Each structure stands twice: as C-alpha cells, then as structure tokens.
Amino acid sequence: MSAARNHDICRFFFAVSADHYHMCYYCGTQPASNMYQWIEWIASRNMPLSEVDDPLTRSMSKLKAVCSKTLKRYMSLLMTAVEAQISAEMSGLYGYKSTLYLENCVALYGVYWQKGQLKLVLLAIAPMEEEPSLSFLIGDNCATNQAIAILLNVPLIGCASHRFNLAVNSYLSYCKTEVEAVSALMAALRTINYRAALLKYTSLSPRRPNATRWSSTVEMVARNVRCRDEIKRVDIVFDLAPKATTHRRIEALQEDLRDFQSVTLKLQLEALTLADVRVLFDSVAERFPSTKAKLSATAPIVHSPAFEVATVKVINGEVGRLTSSECKAIKHFEVAAAPASSGSKRKQRDDEEAEGDFATSGLHARNASGSPQTAALYTELLKKLPTTSNRCERLFSQTKLVLTPQRALLLPI
User: Fold this and answer.
1) What would the pLDDT profile of 16-27 be if each residue is shown by its tens digit?
2) Is residue 369 domain-shared with residue 297, that is, in the same domain?
3) Are 204 and 226 in contact (CB under 8 A)?
4) 362 in a domain, yes or no?
5) How far apart are CA 55 and CA 57, in angstroms?
6) Overall number of domains in the chain
7) Does pTM surpass 0.85?
8) Secondary structure (3-state) at 206
C-alpha cells in the first residue's frame, strides 16, 4: 500500500479558510469555538457577564466580540447539555458529597463510578432534595448531617479530615500547659517594642495560634523551637521563656505535631480509600491513646459504623468475614452477577514523598501485610468512595473570595 502524501492528510483533517488559515474538521465550528472560549474565560476568572461588553476587554482580546445577552443564552444552552450528560452518567448508584453553606443550602457533588474511574461532579449549591437512587452521603460528622442521613435513610461517611481535627484537638487539651506557655511568649513578642528587640537577632517573626486551626499551633511551636536561642537574648522577655524542662516537653510536642501534620496531609489525597484511612487512624490511636475516642471504628461520632467497617473489609478482600449487619449495610452495592475472575492485589501507590513520614510508613506497613483480593462481589464505587468533604470546603473558600457582599447584591448582567 502506498504511503499517503502530506497534502492528502491535511485535506482529510483540515479545511482551507481565509488568510491562508486552516480549520480542523474535528474541533467544531469557529463560532462555537469562539463562544466556548468566552464562556471558559468568564467562568474561570470569576468575572461578571458584563465583562464581555467592556470596550477595553474587547480591544485586548483576539476573540470575536459578543454581547452579554448572547453569552448568557449560550451558557444556559451549555448548562442544559452538561446536565443531560451528567444525568446519563449517573443512571446507576451514586452518592452526594456535601457541606452546609449559609443557612439552608449545601454544596452537592455527585459521586459515581463511570468507565472504570471515580467521578466527582459539582451539581449545585442548593437545598438538598430526596432522590430515589441516593446511596450515601459524605460530610462532616455534625448533628445536622447525621439528621439528614437519618431522614434520607442512607449511610453517612464522616469526613476523615474533620474527624482527625477533633482527635488532634483532644490531644492538645492534654498539652495545654506547654501550648499556653509558648502562646504567651509569642503574644509578648508580637508587641511593637518586643518585636523590635527580637529583630536585632533574627528576621523571623513570632507566630500566634488560630483558634480554628490546629496547624497554626504546629507553626507556633516550630517557630519557638527554631528561635529559642535568639529569644533568650531578648532580656525583656527572658522571664517568659520556657525553662529547660518545659522546653524539652515542647520539643517532644513538636515531634508529635509533625506526625499529626503528615497524617492530615495524607488525608488530602483524592486516591485515599476508607481502608487507608482506617490504617492511619489505627496507627495514630495506638501511638496516642487520647485520640482513640474520636478515631476508633466504633467511636460515638461515627454515624454508620457497620457501613464503614463493611466497606473496609470489602476493600481488603475480606468479604467472607462480613457479619449479617455489615452485609445489610452494603447490600445496596451488591453486583447482580459477580464475574468469575482471579484475585488480584490492590494497586500500590507511588508516593511522591522521598521521606518516610509517620503516615506513609503506616500505609506501607499495611500494604506489605495486606491480604489478597477475592472476586468482586460489590460495585467498584464502594471501594473508591471519597473519604473527605475537603473539595466542598475548598469550593466555599473560593466562593467567599469571589462572592463578596457587594457583588452578591449585583445582577449577573
């Protein structure tokens, strides 16, 4: 067979247009491409629709000018097309990942399995309604979310990050003396005169804790240990500086907080499963017994312990160890006809971290001793359920930055 010439290939894929340009047959029409780029730019940059009417914007853009009314019309048509595609993909089992916002609205992410991968799609920021195919909820372990799960008669997968934060706060309550000593020292060093004196020896500024984020305590303790020698040279705060015995306890606290930090960073991974979370929580509870009340599989804060334990067993290939209550909890996820396939081990994840921190070491130990998988009896969605609602939290953080009180009172156009 003779080889195709270059101009034959170009004629097959491209059409000649004006000014010696070519248009690809498979990239859509030029008006559609132009409109899509306007929509993408406005949506990605969080701009009002009236931005396309601005003369300066039009003069600086190579796109063909459109008016805001036309843009709004095409955005509505695009939304209808996207809704139809998502509805077709969510025809099977699915769940909601949600977080409360303002008074009566929630951010709803659709969670479903499609074409061999887990998909999370933002559906709406709107009041939650009951759905016939809804199989689970993912959210914080608060009383409101638990009440919603009870009303909808679905299991609630508590956000692992929220649960771990509660456990760390309970641990810090036992280290209150050391934390308060460092906090008092840092508060004094942040005054004008004391900070000016500290600047003579170091350019690092003192840190203060944030009551809503224990990670700020990690930074404060680390800054105190880092600048201890420089702080001792400031005579006016010498009496506030922790003594040697207290400082040794603060250094031990810093090491513990580093381990907590490694776990909370590991919980941010999208590919983490409920089995991985259980390994991390068990490792933390074994080393820090004060956290067991929040991290154990049967902790009072857990809304659906049977569902979570059953899911972990399915992921670990321990289907034969399921109890009757656990089988009932995940019955909705059973596959009608299980394929006869040989067992396979869970895919090992290549961690980017070069250092073997506390969280990574725990996961590696679990993977090394894990039992082989049995034949799949349950849908893949059950094995890939998200473990946190962090994506919803990030959405609202972005919303607060964009939707200021002034902009909230404006019309879209």
Assistant:
1) 665 666 666 555
2) yes
3) yes
4) yes
5) 5
6) 4
7) no
8) coil
Measured between alpha carbons, how far is 160 from 168 in angstroms, rounded to an integer?
A: 12
279-296 burial: b if 16+ Cβ within 10 Å, else e: bbbbbbbeebeebbebbb
79 and 102 both lie in a single domain: no
Query: Quick check: is 17 in a domain?
Result: no
* Residue 374: pLDDT over 50: no
Backbone region of residue 164 per phi and psi (left: phi > 0; alpha: psi in -120 to 50; beta: other values) = alpha
Instruction: Work out the number of other CB atoms within 10 angstroms of the CB of residue 225.
Output: 14
Of these ranges, 68-77, 94-103, 236-245, the one predicted with the greatest mean pLDDT is 68-77
Q: Is residue 50 in a domain?
A: yes
DSSP per-residue codes, 98-153: EEEETTTEEEEEEEEEETTEEEEEEEEEE-----TTEEEEEE-S-HHHHHHHHHHT
Q: Please name the residues in contact with 266: beta carbons below 8 A apart, sequence gap of 6 or more.
A: 272, 280, 359, 360, 363
Consecutive H or E run containing 24 = strand 22-24
Report the distance separating Cα 187 and Cα 203, nearest Å.
Answer: 17
Contact 222/179 with Cβ under 8 angstroms? Answer: no
Strand 134-139 and strand 156-158: pairing?
parallel
Whether residue 92 has pLDDT greater than 60: yes
Same domain, 308 and 213: no
Considering 68, 84, 100, which residue would you say is the last residue of a domain? 84
Tens of pLDDT, residue by residue over 49-77, are: 888 999 998 898 888 999 989 988 888 88
Q: Which residues of 325-353 are buried (b: 16+ CB within 10 A; e: fewer)?
A: ebeebbebbeeeeeeeeeeeebeeeeeee
